[in-house]
Amino acid sequence: MSIVIADDDKGPLWQIDEVYGRKEELDTLNKMSDEKASRCVLIQGTAGTGKTTLLRSIKWEEKNWVFVEGKFEKDLCTEPYSALIRVLDRLVEIWLENNKAAPVCQMSNFRQLLEDDIDLLKGIVPGMFRIVGKVAHEIKYTKMSSLRNLTQSYENHHVTEEKVGAESVAIANAFLRLFTFLSSSRPIVLLLDDIHCADSASMEIVELISHNNLSNPIEHSGCTLLALSYNGDLIGKNKFASATVESIKAFENGVHSIELEDLDVDSLNKLVASVVGSNTEITLPLSKVIHKKTAGNPFAVSQFLRYARIKEFFTFSPMTFSWQWGDVEKLDEYAAVSDNVAEILATSMEKLAIPSRIVLKVSSCLGKVIPIDVLIEYFSSKYQEGDDGHLSCPEVQGIHEHGLDSLLAEAAKAGILVKSMTQGAYVWSNDKLQEVAYSFVPVDFRPTLHQRLGKLLWRLGLENDEEWMIFMAANQMNRYADLGQEDCALGTEVAQLNLQAAKLSLDKAALYPALELLEKAERHMGVSNRWVDNYDLTLDLMTNLAETKFRIGQAEDALSIAGLIIENAKSLNDQFRANLVRLQGCVSGRDRDYELGVEKTLEVLKLYGEKHPKKLYPGQKCVEKVKLKKLLPGGELEGLLELPDMVDETALSVQSLLINHLAVYAGMSQKYRLLAWFASVRSLKHACKLGLSPITNQSVLNIAIQMRLEGHFQEASQYADFALKMLERFPRKPGSNHGYLRVGATSTVLGAVRSFNNCLNELVEGRGDLLKSGRTTDAVNASLAYASVYICVGLPLTPLEVDLQLYHQDAKQFGAPYTIQQVFLFFRQAILNLRQTDVKNPTLLVGEAMNQERELEKVQGNGRKMTQRDINSQRLMLSCIFDDWDTAELMLDGLEEWVDATEVFIFRLHYRRCYMGLAGFALSRVCKNSKKRKKFLGIGKKMLKFFTTDMKYGSVNAYPIVSMLEAEESPSKESYDKAIKACARLGLIHHEAYMCERAGRFFVEKGDDEWGEFYFGQAILLYGEWGAKGKAEKLTDDNSRLLSRSSLRESVNTSLQGRSRYSAKELDSLRVIDWQRFSIGSHG
Question: What is the residue range of the signal peptide feature (predicted)?
Fold first, then answer.
């Protein structure tokens, strides 16, 4: 336990250097220290059982580990990342000290890592950047002036600004990258103490680090041993911490759970014998009484021994140089620790001088670490006689650092405080001692103390730009208000301070701590006349409350608050953010009603004087184009770059409504799709008059999308390229749309004129941009686009199946709409059906990943409609490949309403239309109903026309599909060979396999088994190379009579299946298939 027990009775110090009663736990930790692998350790125990001491007792440094620890405090539970910030600051200090002579490239890598994440982290760990800045001057870091902004009057706040900042998981990933890098030189033991007091944002990071550890236990050369300690009786009260612990326990390997209980009599006896320097037989009667009094709690034991020594039960004989003790039965007279712990702990403080006790009482309100600068400022205030002996005294009035250090040193000598070697500050040796010190503050004086400290910390925080002081100030003022003080004026101050602290939390993407602060602000502010007496504060508070509740999924409450804001707001600008909450409510959840979103957005725009038709009259597009060209500088689109920045608040509000809402919702709606183009043109006209906003480039892209939908592929591509060029006008920062535009341009326009293979890299890099800028929900959409194009180009299925599991996990963690989360499940189950050999019905999406009926039950309204469409699309693909035309008929019937539907997202449209065309032509021959055969033939021809038109417009991806559909429309050896060759040249191995299979069936139906055997053999090999083992085996079994062993002697290309991820460098070597091995020409 390493607890020093001392007094001024001339006896030697009592030093406990060994941990008793924990042999099994110590063996486990020592084994882990030798293994050097990433692990997670969960240490559970009640207060005082020695959780932290257990970890500290291991000689980590001797085994080349870096040991760092951070503690979450109950009084700081609303300060995001508090323990992690201190840990990270310390790790960076150690890393820089250990790498003074590091190679230039290693320091360069560290600088690059920090520069990549500086926008995400500079407001969260500014201390770390200051530390690094002393040695890495190339890092361009400037201190955020967030606190200074908080002091501005509420009349000047910009309520029209649409909040788009970093999302919490992006910050969590930035933390993970730092921890991973810092562990690459030396392994790290990261102890986070008392996680039952942790905030939700910290737990998100802890969960990410732990899952990374357990998924990659020996990742490269670095490793992190994450140790989490918590009180088992309290963990259930923190839903975020308890969920994190349960998610860690779910891993089968790499998790070690340690549950500490109080010491038994034998272990306690060894401890006592060690302290008094005697043998265990002599001390056993003494130890039994101590165990009876303390229940074996290690902390209680140490305090009871101290108490008994102060009461002179223990005495040291200078004659025999040994400890002696009185009658053991007399020891029963002392109070049991469990009965009166405060009295026993108080004995340590009662012997201190009055000035020391006063310093401890004030310090008890200020957290585990004693902030000397705050205490100096507190005691510099005017002395009030009424405080004498309670909150102040003449001896501490105007005290300086040296005098304060002497008083704190006295408390440290008594074992109440300890001086931290790493932090260089005094800290409470135990939480219970801090609680006892607070109990010494008379109840009547507590409100005054909290109020004074709150106002002092508030002032110091703003003056020194120290965020932790703002959070602690809010805590002090809340404690003041919670004590039942009735003071309306001060209630407003408490609300204002909580709002400021909440905004700091929101800037750090810590939503739940922010919500707690906002709710306290609203409660302390009172209800009556708030909109009259404190309009600006009320507006700011309620707006942030509505937005925060909406972001964490409390949509009903958020919409109610938004309605209250709109009812009381004095202007449209004041209503703006509340209106956005209402609009987002229309298209969120499991019923994503985009048409309602369009209609509600039009209503809001009308309030700004913006009249928009729900339908365009004939010729209106031409008129709007002419008007726009007249407004553009020089009459050209490039003239937009000459415009100034847009600064008018109302104009920015209208731009946001047009681009981020009307254009987006209309683009997702079949009924109002043309309004997306109209909204974009209208926003550009506004830009010509009032300047560019950071999202004007999205208007250019929206126009490009409409051009593509109308068949103007090349012109659309030019517009999309110009939209990307406009990104250079505005800097990258958290929430910026650089990655969004990059992914959007690729998925909606550039994919129409560029090879799908070339789009993969753009999507991967765009997703990376989105994660770095904190737009994690958009990053999920980028992952979905990547998965769609990946399967369109026929790359190996196994790596994608692994990726889809990670993408689905991201989608859940990032809070993506559930209908988006489902698509990853659909793709994965479809791939499992293709790969696995024991699937009873491979055309049903039922298995390891999902159950289609259960997924449908989870959505409703428009969300259910989209889910049904996506299920039918996947099942149609499986029906074609598994030759199940009865199911294909049902799926094509279910997709009939989507036959003529246009699609903003190119890859999804391409995928669906391809299999609708293949199924249409196949069913036109096998369907028994003549009327249906005609309908399906019409669908096939319509899909063929779509792809033929795209090919004429410049799509390089349409030609293989056209060849396939033509072969299915008019089957012949020549048409199948043409389709097979077209697919092979673009590396579409899945389509090549399908065409070989269809050719094989064509020849078998004609009675030509030789050609049938040849094509089936090639199809089986190609399906195997694709990774569709289940399909390959089924095709082999179904044609066992026909196939000879010679047809299958070529082994499957395992290098394709073993590849873990797509990369452009591998593409050429992986996707070029040797056509000569088919020898089609020689059989003519």
Answer: none
Q: Which two tokens stand for residue 458?
A: 């508030």
Contact 257, 42 (CB under 8 A): yes
| Tens-place pLDDT, residues 313-359 | 888 888 888 888 888 877 766 655 544 555 666 666 777 888 999 99
H-run or E-run covering 226: strand 224-230
Phi, psi values for residue 501, rounded to 5° = -65, -40
d(CA 141, CA 136): 10
- Per-residue confidence (pLDDT) for residue 60, from 0 to 100: 92
DSSP string, 542-559: HHHHHHHHHHTT-HHHHH
CA atoms of 471 and 75, how far apart (whole Å): 9
Map residue 704 onto helix, strand or coil. Answer: helix
Cα pseudo-dihedral 887, 891, 892, 895, rounded to 10:
180
* Global confidence as pTM: 0.75
pLDDT by residue (tens digit) across 985-1010? Answer: 999 999 999 999 999 999 999 999 99
Cβ atoms < 10 Å from Cβ of 813? 17
Measured between alpha carbons, how far is residue 812 from residues 816, 818, 958 in Å?
Answer: 6, 8, 34
CA–CA separation, 1072 vs 474, rounded Å? 64
The 10 Å Cβ neighbour count of residue 107 is 16
Q: Which tokens is 125 given?
A: 């760990």
Cα–Cα distance, 406 to 413 (Å, whole number): 10
pLDDT of residue 5: 55
For residue 696 the two structure tokens come to: 């004007």
Q: Quick check: 150 pLDDT over 80? A: no
> What is the average pLDDT across 820-845?
95
Q: Which residue has the tokens 């009381």?
A: 568
CA dihedral of 772, 778, 779, 782, whole degrees rounded to 10: -130
Cβ atoms 806, 1069 nearer than 8 A: no
Reported as half-sphere exposure (CB side, CA atoms, 13 A), residue 697 has a value of: 23
Q: What is the mean pLDDT of the chain?
A: 84
Among 761, 794, 800, residue whose Cα is nearest residue 1073: 794
- With CA atoms as reference, report the closest residue to 785 among 766, 810, 813, 805: 766
Given a cut of 70, is residue 40 above it in pLDDT? yes
* DSSP run (H or E) holding 188: strand 188-193
